[in-house]
Design goal:
The chain is α/β, with parallel strands linked by helices and about 325 residues long. The protein folds into two domains: about 5-25 and about 140-235, Putative methyltransferase TM0872, insert domain (DNA polymerase, domain 1, Orthogonal Bundle), CATH 1.10.150; about 35-130 and about 240-325, Vaccinia Virus protein VP39 (Rossmann fold), CATH 3.40.50. About 35% of the residues lie in helices and about 15% in strands. A seven-stranded mixed β-sheet has the order 3-2-1-4-5-7-6, sandwiched between helices.
């Protein structure tokens, strides 16, 4: 490893050794405002005595809404890999918190004696808490350690990737996950900047890519750049694929999957999987040319937030909801 990179690990801001000390939220603070709350839960067609899964617990908004529709015999398992989320757990005997990435959906449920469920909900993306808690490094506004890990106890941080990945790898990340038009320019800017000094904070990253940041679309460009790093840090697309595949195995026939996505990469995966049972754009067909999809679409088109919801919660504007029923 380069001597400069090795020495920077001694810096207290370097995220591989950084354990954030987050301030406790006050009673009036909002961890996350649930998006498409009624729509996403209604599409599950809740059986009051059924067993359900919330793959993205977060602030617990969707979880509480599902619980409100369950009888005493109903059960709900909610996943979240972020230790901060545990503070939001409801005191309810029907509720079971699973501190885990949802990529381990099937194994975690079978470990708890659950072989099939009646419905699965996922509200993908980043919670308001992650953006608003500056120490997490998800936002390009302000200055914070360059972290971006959903689970800050594990894995490589954004600082690790920015300072260690070569230009080719950075180009792939920005092009594939951020869909930036000229990803190689951002990669080269970062390589040049880190040659002078390590890039340890969000503000330093913004400064590093300033030479290639378009003035008219600065916010859009930085949003894509930070999105790309976040997806890479957390392995989000791989985790989503794994969760979708396992959802098909865990749902009983007639069980439903309801998913809210926030960018085209997520939505494309969800759409293809619900339509075709695979991540390919075209469905597999049998000998007679009939589609072999294991799903029946509940939503023909993605459901978008209403104008009222967007006005109330601007962060919901990019949300798209899709649902399907297992045949």
């Amino acid at each position: 490893m380069d001597t400069k990179i090795e020495n920077m690990r001694e810096n207290p801001l370097f995220l591989s050794n950084f354990t954030p000390k987050y301030a406790k939220m006050n009673e009036t603070a909002t961890y996350h405002t649930p998006v498409l709350l009624s729509e996403s839960v209604d599409l599950l067609a809740i059986d009051p005595d059924g067993t359900y899964v919330d793959l993205t617990f977060g602030g617990g908004g969707h979880t509480r809404h599902i619980l409100s529709k369950l009888s005493e015999r109903g059960r709900l398992f909610s996943f979240d890999q972020d230790p901060d989320a545990k503070a939001n757990c409801p005191d309810d005997p029907r509720f079971h918190f699973v501190e885990s990435n949802f990529r381990f959906l099937r194994g975690a449920l079978r470990y708890r004696g659950v072989e099939q469920v009646d419905g699965i909900l996922a509200d993908l993306g980043v919670s308001s808490h992650h953006f608003d808690c500056t120490e997490r490094g998800f936002s390009f506004r302000g200055e914070a350690p360059l972290d971006m890990r959903m689970n800050y106890r594990n894995g490589r941080s954004a600082a690790d990737i920015v300072n260690e990945a070569d230009a080719e790898t950075l180009t792939r990340i920005f092009g594939e996950w951020g869909e930036i038009d000229t990803p190689y320019k951002a990669a080269n800017c970062i390589v040049r900047a880190r040659a002078a000094a390590p890039i340890l904070t969000t503000a330093q990253l913004v400064e590093a890519v300033a030479p290639c940041t378009p003035r008219k679309d600065e916010s859009k460009f930085l949003t894509k750049l930070f999105q790309a790093l976040r997806i890479e840090v957390n392995g989000e697309m791989e985790a989503l694929k794994m969760a979708l595949e396992q959802s098909l195995k865990m749902l009983r026939p007639g069980g439903r999957l309801s998913v809210i996505s926030y960018h085209s990469l997520e939505d494309r995966l969800v759409k293809n999987f619900m339509r075709n049972g695979t991540f390919a754009a075209q469905a597999e067909k049998d000998f007679f040319g009939r589609s072999t999809t294991p799903w029946q679409l509940v939503t023909r088109k993605a459901v978008a937030p209403s104008a009222e919801e967007i006005a109330r919660n601007p962060r919901s504007r990019s949300a798209r909801l899709r649902a399907a029923e297992k045949l």
